[in-house]
Amino acid sequence: MSRDHEGPELRPRVFISSLIKPGDVVLTTTPERMSQVIRKITGADISHAMICVGKSSVIDSTGDGVHARNLDRVLLEPGCSGYVLRWVKPLTTDQLLAVVSFARAAVGTRYTKDGAVKSVLAGFVPGRRQFCSRLVAQAYRSAGIDLVLDADFCHPGELQNSKALVEVPDVLRDLSAEEEFYLREDFDNVQVMRDATNALLQEARKLSSEIESLNDIDGYLIEHEEADARLVQALQTSRYLGVWHEEFERNSWQYHVALMEGHNVPEEHKRKYCEELLADQKLGQNRFVLNHGLYVGINAEHPRKYFALQVELYDLLASFHARRVNAATTWLERRGLLEPVSRKLLRPHSSEWFASLREWDAKQAAMTKAAISAAGSSDVCSICADDPARDYAFVSPPTAGPGTIRLCEDCFDIQPIDNPLEPF
């Protein structure tokens, strides 16, 4: 592997995010004393490991715990090393989803300094807390891939020397003085989300020391209904629910093509943003939609105000995401950089229709399935199972779900007028 950047004038460097794919392992170091100690003990020129989960998005474990961060903001100080490693074989879709899902599920988990120290030793039992190289190795192990001998106790140097990984070349570039100033002064949206997540978890851990990740809160609340009010208050005081509105206001240009056209940033910056957003969209199922469906199901079985607020939150986030995708798509289409794709409508009560509805609202999908089964025919109304019924499409496509429905005359008449239907 190539070593530190050489040249007459060492400049800070950043990763070229367009060359980095989800699933890639990102290795870095810093001038800090702890980093120097780790490098000396392990004999490597890096001290930290991250895993890429989306375009310009990585997840790692630091003193703040496990969190996502913007790869474009990962700055390597002059003389510091940085590498990107990729599995020797192309990851299958299932393997990639397993790796990314494992990393995302760990968000909020506390950092373990003791575990990191023990990673160069042997004979210890792993706990649930995380450190950087363990997170990466365990994420891959969840997909059936062993990067190192012991995924529970490994250090970044072992990942760097893993025979299962190959280096992606030429992934770093120097920052200009102007870029460096902008990067150091610019507001970090992701840090605000990290702070809110940690604040929520800090309050939740007052209820149970066993809570590590956000997912643990859900499990705890299912078993302890009496904790609902405390956790609702924690959601509100942590600003976890409000951070998204603030991000929307700061980056409003991303949500409407007219604002994007008039936004005062270089054309190439807008193109990069739009293309990376749509590339992420193609990677797999939208996590906002999946989380919405998850909380709809949990709240149906275990009604809690906390879960209801999560349903509302992910409804909002899915809507925000859909607006961003629509704006980015339109912007690229206007410049001939993307071929227009006609809207695909799903025939109501088909297997594809049910799969789409189940992803967004499993409860409604189950109710419609039961109604059809009771009627003995799929040609009945999606809501009340009356016959005859007619197929309709929403004029303005909803945030998620099939975008079509089969309705009898009575159910059609009571549909909200703010999202009109047309015959399909």
What's the structural blueprint in terms of helices and strands?
Elements: E1 13-15, E2 25-28, H1 33-42, E3 48-54, E4 57-62, E5 65-70, E6 75-76, E7 82-87, H2 93-105, H3 113-118, H4 132-141, H5 156-160, E8 165-167, E9 172-174, H6 177-185, H7 189-204, H8 214-223, H9 228-237, H10 243-250, H11 257-262, H12 267-283, H13 287-301, H14 305-334, H15 351-360, H16 362-375, E10 390-394, E11 404-407, H17 409-413, E12 421-423
Antiparallel strand pairs: 1-6, 1-9, 2-3, 2-7, 3-4, 4-5, 7-8, 10-11, 10-12
Helix pairs in contact: 2-4, 7-9, 12-14, 13-14, 15-16
Please, could you describe this protein's structure?
By secondary structure, the protein is an alpha+beta fold. It folds into three domains: 13-174, endopeptidase domain like (from Nostoc punctiforme) (endopeptidase fold (from Nostoc punctiforme), Alpha-Beta Complex); 186-334, no CATH class; 362-423, no CATH class. The chain is 46% helix and 12% strand. The protein contains 17 helices and twelve strands. The chain has helices spanning 33-42, 93-105, 113-118, 132-141, 156-160, 177-185, 189-204, 214-223, 228-237, 243-250, 257-262, 267-283, 287-301, 305-334, 351-360, 362-375, 409-413, and strands at 13-15, 25-28, 48-54, 57-62, 65-70, 75-76, 82-87, 165-167, 172-174, 390-394, 404-407, 421-423. The protein has a six-stranded antiparallel sheet with strand order 5-4-3-2-7-8. A three-stranded antiparallel sheet has the order 6-1-9, with no helix packed on it. It has a three-stranded antiparallel sheet with strand order 11-10-12. The radius of gyration is 24 Å and the shape is globular. The chain starts with 12 loop residues before the first strand and ends with a strand. Mean pLDDT is 87; it is low at 1-5 and 115-125.
